[in-house]
Specification:
alpha/beta; five-stranded mixed beta barrel; 9 strands; about 30% helix; about 25% strand; binds hypoxanthine
């Protein structure tokens, strides 16, 4: 990790990020609106290159609302064949750079039948259906303990603050449980029924590895899902990545306003 951290520190000088933001599918443009220092993952020693439609692959360091922020434009997904170590590596690097809070965003399908595409959902908890755990393997005791508590991954305090902000902005939000599958195939209707019975409100293919890792190393986590589609079997049309990106694009204004105000109060 030290070579990655050293390289980044060379580029950012005395900028110490307080807040990290992982920008999910279709939400990466948020970082483009700020003048900052852009570092492609491919330039950073020990970072792998990310390739996926709707994602970029850069760290963007910028001062937003007088807060020092590091944004991930594009993330590593397990379904791309990356190991859990690679998927969660940037979280550990952001921790080493100094972040105290991590806002994790994603695009997700609605499992809860009361949700609709273009809703924003604060994640209250998650169900890990990825069949593995990012903390398997050697434990770096200087970052976190071997058996970390996960009874409150997503900070209730941050959700409370974010909900109030959304209310003041007139943005309707949901609060619910995010289930993560590996992908890359979308779920079957039977799997979505199962997830609903298990208590999930939304489903996606990310976030859980990064959230577990962040909690493990003592970072406060806020999770925001952009509901981009009805999950399999709920709507009457097949799911497509194009639809996910198009809906994420539609939510962009609300998402941007919300994120800006949240950064202000952190
Ligand atoms: N399922 C899984 N991942 C997703 C979905 C979905 O319906 N929508 C966006 N990401």
């Amino acid at each position: 990790m030290q070579s990655s951290v050293n390289y980044i520190k060379e580029k950012i000088g005395d900028f110490i990020p307080q807040i990290g933001i992982i920008l999910g599918s279709g939400l990466g443009d948020f970082a483009d609106s700020f003048k900052g220092i852009v570092i492609p993952y491919s330039d950073i020693p020990d970072f792998e290159e990310a390739h996926i439609e709707g994602h970029k692959g850069c760290l963007v360091f910028a001062c937003i609302e007088e807060k020092n922020v590091v944004m991930m434009q594009g993330r590593y997904h397990f379904y791309e064949g990356h190991s859990m170590q690679t998927v969660t590596y940037p979280v550990k690097i952001m921790k080493k750079l100094g972040i105290e809070t991590l806002i994790i965003t994603n695009a997700a399908g609605a499992v809860n039948k009361n949700y609709s595409p273009a809703d924003l959902m604060f994640i209250t908890d998650h169900i890990n259906m990825m069949g593995t755990n990012p903390l398997i393997g050697h434990n770096y005791d200087n970052l976190g303990v071997r058996f970390p508590d996960m009874s409150e991954i997503y900070s209730k305090n941050l959700i409370y603050k974010a909900e109030n902000i959304a209310k003041n902005l007139g943005i309707k939000t949901q609060k619910g449980i995010y289930a993560a599958t590996t992908g890359p195939s979308y779920e079957t209707p039977a799997e979505i029924n199962m997830l609903r019975i298990l208590g999930a409100d939304a489903v996606g293919m990310s976030t859980v590895p990064e959230a577990i890792t962040a909690k493990w190393c003592g970072i406060n986590v806020l999770g925001i899902s952009c509901i981009t589609n009805y999950a399999s079997g709920i709507g009457n049309k097949p799911l497509s990545h194009k639809e996910v990106i198009e809906t994420a694009d539609k939510i962009k204004d609300n998402f941007t306003n919300l994120l800006m105000e949240i950064i202000k109060v952190l």
